[in-house]
Structures are given as structure tokens and as C-alpha cells.
Amino acid sequence: MSSLSLAVRDCSTMLRRNLLHARRYPSLTLNLLLTPVMLLLLFVYIFGDVMSAGMAGDGADRSDYIAYVVPGILLMTIGSTVIGAAVSVSTDMSEGIIARFRTMAIHRGSVLVGHVVGSVLQSLASVVLVGAVAVAIGFRSTDATALEWLAAFGLIALFALALTWIAVGMGMASPNAEAASNSAMPLILLPLISSAFTPVEAMPGWFQPIALYQPFTPAIETLRGLLLGTEIGYNGWLAVAWSIGLAVLGYRWSAASFNRDPK
């Protein structure tokens, strides 16, 4: 077999390993998935009418706010799901299986690739489940074309890949699973200070730069524009640039940690 075929085989084996772990121990994924679902229901049914009136005047109804908040919740779902990747990698490191893999005649990158691809697939599945909940409570995307739907899926996949590499780096750098879970918490908290739940213009002036200059806001605005047929502007380029930059940073961080000689 060629070196490429061997690498693909090893990556597939590691991917199956991680998917089996996720299937055998679904509680972590379900617990992480519960956060965006609960926030979606909370903001729609508890704050929906008030938020709609505040954003569009007294003539607005809850359906307007559902359309606004769902894109942010979908990307928040990715941030929540990839925490599982950080915990899984950290567990492998602390239990010694990574050290064992280093001594085996397998492609070195296959261990990380298995974690990353598995986490991306779980993130996409989680987005589909949360999207189904959103549709059930009234979200509709009637103005999006087939090309815009394809672009939205591509953005979600690219953003999931970027956040997964960052989460894997956090897991490699954490001494245990609890520390990995805590270090990855910003991936859930950042959407709360973005344009996910309220427009940036409605925030205090001193706080607006914090919301604007972070990866979630341009990604949310781009996804919102694609799903609702509204203007995207420069947010699309910013979202892609943030995603590629985070993916490269996470990959280099993870690879350097993996190749570092154990102490």
C-alpha cells in the first residue's frame, strides 16, 4: 500500500474509534447539546415578545425574533459541541493512550484527524437537531435560495472545523478532562456577547467593539444573511478569514503539542 493509502486507513480507524466512543457514551454530547436548545426556548418563549418589540417596534411579533436568534443559536451549538472534543483529547492524554499511539506504526496525524473529523460530524448532527427544534417552534427560511443554503452549510462546516482544531489544542494542553472543559468554556460564552441575541447597535458604545471584533459575530451575521436573504456585506469575508485563521492556529497548536516529547 502507498503511504497515502496507509494514512487514509489509519485516519479512518481513528475516526471509527472516536465515533464508537461518542455512541457508547452519549451523555456528554447530549448535555452539551442541551445548552443551546434551552437557550433557544428561553429566548423565544420568555423573552421573544419583549425582544421583538425592542428591535422592531410594537408591530413586531415573536416570529421576527425567532428568525433573528436561530442563526446565532446554530453557531453556538457548534461551540458547545466541540467542548466534547477537548474533553476527549484530554482524556486520551491523561490515560496514556496518546503515548501508546506514538509508539505504534501508524500515521502520526491520524490520531488528531480522527478526533477532528469525528467532532465536526457530531457538530453537524447537533446543528441539524437544533435546527429541527427551531423549525418546530416556527423558524422559516423562505427567502434563501439553493445556493445560499449550500453556502450556509459550507460556512457551518468550516466554522465547526476551526473551532474543533482550537478545542483539540485546548485538550492537548490541559492536564485533565475537567481543566479541558473549563478552558473550552469561552466557545460557549463568546456567542453570548456577540450579535446572536441582540444587534450590536443596541449595545452600549464601550461594549460594541468587544462584540464586533470576535469570530462569532461575522459568522452569525453571514449565516443570518444566507438563511434570511438579507445583506451580508463584508461579514462573509471576515467569517471565512476568522475560520481559516482559527483552523490554522488550532492545527499548529495541536500538532506542536502532539509532537512534543512527553515529560
Integer-rounded radius of gyration: 19 Å
**Overall pLDDT metric:** 86
Beta-strand percentage range: under 5%
Q: From the structure provided, what is the oligomeric state, counting identical versus distinct chains? A: single chain
Query: What composes the largest sheet?
Result: none
The secondary-structure class comes to mainly alpha
Name the poorly predicted regions: none
Keywords: Antibiotic resistance, Cell membrane, Membrane, Transmembrane, Transmembrane helix, Transport
Family: Belongs to the ABC-2 integral membrane protein family.
Domain ABC transmembrane type-2: 27-261
Transmembrane segments: 25-46, 66-90, 111-137, 149-172, 184-207, 234-253
Question: Topology, pairings included?
Answer:
Blueprint: H1 3-24, H2 27-45, H3 48-56, H4 62-81, H5 83-95, H6 97-103, H7 109-136, H8 146-173, H9 177-183, H10 186-189, H11 208-212, H12 216-228, H13 235-259
Overview of the structural elements:
Its main location: membrane. It is found in: Cell membrane; Membrane. It holds the Pfam family ABC2_membrane. It comes from Streptomyces virginiae (Streptomyces cinnamonensis). InterPro entries: ABC2_TM, ABC2_TM_bact-type, ABC_2_transport, Nod_factor_ABC_transporter. The chain is an all-alpha fold. Helix content is 76%, strand content 0%. The chain is built from 13 helices and no strands. Helix 5 packs antiparallel against helix 7 and helix 8 packs across helix 9. The chain is elongated and about 60 Å long. The mean pLDDT is 86.
